[in-house]
Amino acid sequence: MDDNLAIFLILAIAINAALILTISMSWIRTKRRALELQPAAVTTLKNENETLKAQVAKLESRLHVLERIAVDPAERTSREIELLR
């Protein structure tokens, strides 16, 4: 084997190894950051879930009132409205 070819192959292998190592370290760092951010995302989602549950409960309550008004006789509804005035 020619000396120049051997040196070229060694340099090519070293450069490729460095490139693969750099890409691997970047990938590992990205995965680690994603795992570190995961608990914060879970907390955010839990808070949002609680807020949405409260909104749904409020809307269900309002819907119940509207259903009661729609089904009740007009006389009873007008009487209740007059009592509120």
Explain what the structure shows.
The chain is mostly helical and 85 residues long. It has one domain. Helix content is 94%, strand content 0%. The radius of gyration is 34 Å and the shape is rod-shaped.
Task: Name its key features.
single chain, 85 residues, mainly alpha, 2 helices, rod-shaped, transmembrane helix, membrane
Write the layout of secondary structure elements.
Elements: H1 3-71, H2 74-84
Distance between the termini: 104 Å
Alpha-carbon Rg, integer: 34 Å
The count of DSSP E runs of length 2 or more, i.e. the number of strands, is 0
Averaging pLDDT over every residue, what do you get?
89
Number of structural domains: 1
Q: Any low-confidence stretches, pLDDT <50, length ≥5? A: none
Query: SSE string, helix = H, strand = E?
Result: HH
Q: Percent helix among the residues?
A: over 70%
Care to give the gist of this entry?
The protein has helices spanning 3-71, 74-84. The protein is mostly helical.
